């Protein structure tokens, strides 16, 4: 208990004096793996007390805000009063408050301290980015979770002095009407003064200069990430991106551009495709003619079979490939595993633009069974128990340490950045406990995605249907599903589900027809099956799109300010998302209509 008090005091100190403490750490430039793990163990052992303390700290810091004052909390900081006064909310409920902050109202509306910047969440699921408050506490939380997961990773895969080939991208910043800087949460983190020092401490310094990370043209940044990664290949200890999707995109580009990259290294002259002056100057400054390196890369690439194991072949000191590989990213792990060859795929943390939730403390666990341990001092968490099949709420939210193994829940967050009892929209399953804090498996975004009438299918159901159908593809040599999405087509009568697929190569019509039938059969929701049988929902349609179509979807989101690092292919495209529907429908090369219920 005495150690706990020390931790709570330290944490209190961190929140109030995070700048000062991080400055001290920067000076020492050290990282004590054992100490980080020991502190994590202590905090998770006392999760219930730490949660109470964390809520108290959040409410002490923000109790005078207009939002909490208006709810009659009256300065109380205990869990019971908090629950009695503060309602559960969604982003929609908070929009008017956030909009006032965005428009320049400097009163303490949601947070006690003034808001200095705004984050834009990727918004890939909703079709438009969400505005959120960003502050120093979120930066501090980010460094905290980076350090915790690195400590556990490093215990299994110790890395020496080195760097990381990180495919990270800052996105454009703009000023809101009220003069606040707005950009994605990841960019806010990359631009923070603590990011660089933490990356140095945890041997994760990016091989590319800042000009590449913050370059305004994604294609040029990607090319230069690859080039810098090759120039510093012997120092690279691991290869990473925020999401697995960015890693797959990077190595798909490598497959196309490797000869040009070799040419640049051989001649020491950067390709003319890099036209952005600041990227060009920064990368040219580190590029020298190195025919030996260029020839060795060329030979290695030529020797690969279908790019299997390209990562360990070229980055021989890399110990693992790292990024978020769970949830909607699981689809990309097959392709990523192909590029990674013998290297393990290590899953990164669980969090969101709203705030961090949990760390991966079992880096050896593969993506399909990875779970995440909630950090009880990173926010205050509640869980709405859900009924399995349709994600219906069963009862009032319960506390972090009250959840049951095997049950599914929707997460509610209360953060240091102005969110109180906020429904994140994610569904998780409790897989077990680490000391007294739960291990969560990410299940899906909670919102219902495919529905025509009484049928209800979620992202998880869609994933299951696609997984089942792609088993039929794997029988065909070299045939791979690159990406997919769905749409509930109500324009036809009756309405029906449309699944868009992009394949790496041509497939036989017979195989695709079987895949289409298989998906239709795999949606086993009673409402769907019943409606299909009586014809109130039409046959599921598989629309195969041209190669490169999902790239076009990605570019569309990038043009609207989403960063590549945060991009997640929307698994369902709503009728209002006209541009994306047009991109998809404009590139359909084959259509199949299910015969599963004929
Ligand atoms: P954003 O705020 O745009 O960065 O997206 C956050 C969302 O990404 C979360 O609410 C989750 O749905 C998803 N996400 C983040 N981390 C993970 C993870 N480790 N596994 C699965 N999904 C994740």
What is the mean pLDDT? 89
Strand content: 15-25%
Main β-sheet: number of strands, strand sense, barrel status?
9 strands, antiparallel
State the secondary-structure class: alpha+beta
Poorly predicted regions: 1-28
Number of helices: 22
Helix fraction bin: 40-55%
Q: Give every kind of bound small molecule, once each.
A: adenosine monophosphate
Please tell me how large the radius of gyration is: 24 Å
Distance between the termini: 67 Å
Set out the fold topology.
Blueprint (H helix, E strand, L loop, with lengths): L1 H15 L1 H11 L4 H13 L1 H16 L3 H5 L8 H7 L5 H12 L14 E4 L10 E4 L1 H21 L6 E5 L6 E2 L5 E4 H6 L2 H9 L8 H4 L4 H14 L4 E8 H24 L9 H8 L6 H13 L6 H5 L5 E5 L8 H8 L4 E3 L2 E3 L2 E5 L12 E3 L5 E8 L4 E2 L4 E2 L8 E7 L7 E13 L2 E9 L13 H16 L6 E9 L6 E8 L5 H14 L3 H9 L6 E5 L3 H11 L18 H8 L2 E6 L5
Parallel strand pairs: 1-5, 3-6, 6-7, 7-8, 19-20
Antiparallel strand pairs: 1-2, 4-5, 9-10, 10-11, 11-17, 12-13, 12-14, 12-15, 15-16, 16-17, 18-19, 20-21
Bound molecules: adenosine monophosphate.
Describe the protein's architecture and organization.
This protein has 598 residues and is α+β, with helices and mostly antiparallel strands. The chain is built from 22 helices and 21 strands. Strand 7 (320-324), helix 17 (333-340) and strand 8 (345-347) form a beta-alpha-beta unit. Helix 1 (2-16) packs across helix 2 and helix 12 (218-231) crosses helix 13. The longest helix has 24 residues, at 244-267. The protein is globular, with a radius of gyration of 24 Å. The relative contact order is 0.11. Bound molecules: adenosine monophosphate (AMP). Adenosine monophosphate is lined by residues 121-122, 324, 326-327, 350-353, 424, 426, 442, 445, 566.
